[in-house]
User: What shape does this take?
Amino acid sequence: MSKSILILGARSDIARACAQHYAAEGYAVRLAARDIAPLKVDATDLHLRHRVAATTHRFDALDTAKFAAFIDGLPELPDVVLCAVGTMGDQSESQSNPEAAAIVLRSNFEGPALFLGMMAERFETRGSGVVIGISSVAGDRGRASNYVYGAAKAGFTAFLSGLRNRFSRSAIKVITVKPGFVATKMTDGMDLNPRLTAQPEAVANAIWRAQAKGRDVVYVKPIWFVVMAIIRTLPERIFKKTKL
Amino acid sequence: MQLSGWGRFPRIDGTLSAPRSEAALSALLGTGPVIARGMGRAYGDSAIARNTVDMGHFNRMLAFDEATGQLVAEAGVTLSEIITAFLPRGWFLSVTPGTQFVSLGGAIAADVHGKNHHSEGSFGRFVDWLDLMGPDGTVKRCSRTENADLFGWTLGGMGLTGIVIRAAIRLKPVESGWIRQTTIPAANLSEALEAFEDTFAATYSMAWIDCAATGDKMGRSIVMNGEHAGRSELPADRRAKPYDMPKHGTMSVPFNAPGFALNPWSVRLFNEAYYQRGARLPSNGLVGWAPFFYPLDTIRNWNRIYGRKGFMQFQCVVPLESHAEGLRAILDAISRTGAGSFLAVLKRFGAQESRLSFPMEGYTLALDFPMNRRSLALMPELDRITADHGGRFYLAKDSRMSADTLRETDPRWAEFAAMRREHGLQHHFASAQSERLGL
Assistant: This one.
């Protein structure tokens, strides 16, 4: 019986690259997103290229009440769950409209954290599993330009860290991924520094290696570890005046 | 941003959009001409324009029929990905050019050829149908029976009839990933041509030709033939896994070579060494599919060997009636200027039945030259010789031919340009090349 991975937010570019990578390694792939119609063609592609089972599943990260039923409806309890759900939102919109801000907070933090927490419980019952959360360097310190998104990602990072701490003595692994800039739909049209920007395939490769080597926190481009270490250690009275 | 082809000459400024859906793609049409771009492996300016559309997100395989070997895939899928997915199941490309890093859409647009052109034809022969997005954003299925005219103009039409979205191609069954290769050293051009004619029955054939050799040695070559190896031809220890290959490392050219790295002496030395090595090779042996079809693919960014200024490719075909004189005149012109090409390829073409495609029954010669004044002066001379011998040129390689030369050597393009005008296509699909050549 081959291993399987459940990918939430499967329409994102990082998720698609991860699906290709894990399928190439022989994993059955369960693709989940709110709108599954466009996922069908991805599932066909994965099956044709890698001869693995690939299925699509409707999943709404904001509909927490349906999480348990969703897990029960999967073909199997997967070996790996990867959450790439998230939305950047619009910071100025989030500042003035609490409804919009709530969507950003819930879809980047509440939904992903609660779902992965629930999966971890199932993994505990079985005695194994890998939980992978795509968080963000934006959660390392709140900045004026995107602190609603950043706060949600900070919460998600803290949740994953707690989960990892709780399961550190078990066979359950928890991996936090902080990709930095990635050339994706989310960043199309932004003017990003190419030295700080990774391709989705590089993110997938870094995730695969992290799982193979038992890493806890992954910065895809090592330079981001350095950049964020500096940003985190800046004294607040200096940091508050920066424009980053 | 700056865009160029594989030869890195010319470069032009323009926008590059990478749509993710048909809707996003069609939204890019109608506001001025665009050209689709796949892997950017056309050498010159075929896939660059002020507005260029990167088809990289159209990269899904859609269906495969185990009974017929028909694969349906989106235009951005690369030939390399097709081999990776299907060779382990016993299928190979029916036709492949000298690099696997080209997109399906690009292979159709240039109607690429391979080492089996004389025996099996060009890439287009194995395209069952294609879906083409026209100027108004609607997608038409084109095949030999449906929209047959458009289908004909699209094979080899350099992306100027519309944007290929997806296509169905036929793969060929193979028993292994190995090729039985036969090498024939030929001391001069006559011997090389004789070797081609003697081995016309071979499925694959091509020759590396030494452009630096002069006098009695002019046109000396290593002619290489190949056949897909059957399972029973493999050594016993390979038969269980006939599609598995030993791992090959890849090299990369890490930076642009300085301009002086390529000069008549280094070219001569390289070619001498290459010929001697080729002449010593066992005349018959098994080689893997990758080194046989794609010797240069193991060196990533090999185009950097030519330095920052880039290089030009010259590829012509000379018809069978006049090929020997034509080739001799070309080689003579090259050696007179001492321009010399590192890797030059000679190949026999078979008959070609299609509307625009480059091949014709005869011999094709492909050469590359560093971008400099000497090469630029030589090119029109080679154009002239080719034209005088009834030959024509491969647009996927061209970066500097004149519109007059194209018109003189290949009247089909004038017909194509008229068809484009009739349908107003020139306002919607154009490349730097099509504008230069007045298409």
About this structure: Chain B touches chain A through eleven residues (CB under 8 Å). Residues 178-400 of chain B form a domain with the Alpha-Beta Plaits fold (CATH 3.30.70.2520).
